[in-house]
């Protein structure tokens, strides 16, 4: 039995809704299913405005446009993240300034943010790694005190909470992903959540190729025209139809993933006591969405051995980010604030295990027995 790291599971009405969208005779963006997704997400998150995009990368690019950055402006973010977090701002001529991560959650270390602030700083971008929220009380306070824009890369965190408030509603804006490796998916897809109402009007314009078309369709202007910068960021209504079927099952999907997550967590308890690995840490304030189950090895060598061992057993496990500050483009376009000790140490040691809605009991049993075999061999070395 081969076990994939990720699988795009169809869960409910995906086929029916796509069929329905096609029968509507119009499948361009902002059709009926797109509207349904917008309403669902606005209500679920408690945000004044959500706009679907064709990816989280697109939502990040929209947020960089909304931030109105000038060449040389600085944006604080972790180096331990996906390239799009940084690229979106580099495209606007801004400079990412990387801050190290916390040892426990692997989220950006909020105590190191202020040292990275300069007169050129315009925004802070947080990434809620593995769906576990950053320390938002401290970060919101810093952003407010220094009058900086706060943007959440919540790509992995739909359905997560910090102190009872939905992740994605803390920043001026937040970006979600529906890429097939995320909890809720549409193949490729994303959403921009706009919490600061002063950005709503411009976000609609940027998303519609720099035109006031959204206002035109609402009858607020009598013709539509080019009014600002923009691009094409909206997905087809067919994609939204698939997505809506997934969103309707959001709680079911996240609940199932949490079950898998706790099975891993219980299984690894003893191996953590034996110091073979370290398990993920979730602060008490955080309700997470089980986006990921990872373990941390004591060394790169141990991780490599485990990946190879599992591969022989037909189980696909993967490492994660190559820190952006050490990448060729990161060295060219970004700066580092302070040292990157934790980022470098942990990115070499982290291993992600299979996690998807349809992961079966048999598959979980096979993963666990293979890992037991691995750790037994490992302890005898
Ligand atoms: C997946 C991911 C993205 C990119 O999402 P896309 O929808 O593929 O563009 C950005 N940031 C983080 C942290 C991610 O995990």
Number of beta-strand segments: 13
Helical content (DSSP H or I, runs of 4+) = 25-40%
Radius of gyration: 21 Å
Order of helices and strands: HHEHEHEEHEEEEEHHHHEEHHEHEH
What are the key terms here?
three-stranded antiparallel sheet, 381 residues, alpha/beta, eight-stranded mixed sheet, binds pyridoxal-5'-phosphate, 13% strand
Structural overview:
The protein is of the alpha/beta class and 381 residues long. The protein has 13 helices and 13 strands. The chain has an 8-stranded mixed sheet with strand order 1-9-8-5-4-2-3-12, with helices on both faces. The chain has a 3-stranded antiparallel sheet with strand order 7-6-10, with no helix packed on it. Strands 11-13 form a two-stranded antiparallel ribbon. The chain is globular. It starts with 13 loop residues before the first helix and ends with a helix. The relative contact order is 0.17. The model has no long low-confidence stretch (mean pLDDT 96). Bound molecules: pyridoxal-5'-phosphate. Pyridoxal-5'-phosphate (PLP) is lined by residues 55-57, 81-82, 84-85, 127, 153, 155-156, 177, 179, 190.
Short account of what is shown:
The two termini are 28 Å apart. With 381 residues, this protein is α/β, with parallel strands linked by helices.
Topology record:
Layout: H1 14-23, H2 32-45, E1 49-53, H3 56-66, E2 74-78, H4 83-90, E3 95-99, E4 121-127, H5 136-145, E5 149-153, E6 161-162, E7 165-166, E8 173-177, E9 190-194, H6 200-207, H7 213-217, H8 237-248, H9 250-273, E10 286-287, E11 294-296, H10 300-312, H11 328-333, E12 335-336, H12 341-347, E13 350-352, H13 361-380
Parallel strand pairs: 2-3, 2-4, 3-12, 4-5, 5-8
Antiparallel strand pairs: 1-9, 6-7, 6-10, 8-9, 11-13
Helix pairs in contact: 1-8, 2-8, 3-4, 3-6
Residues 55-57, 81-82, 84-85, 127, 153, 155-156, 177, 179, 190 line the site of pyridoxal-5'-phosphate.
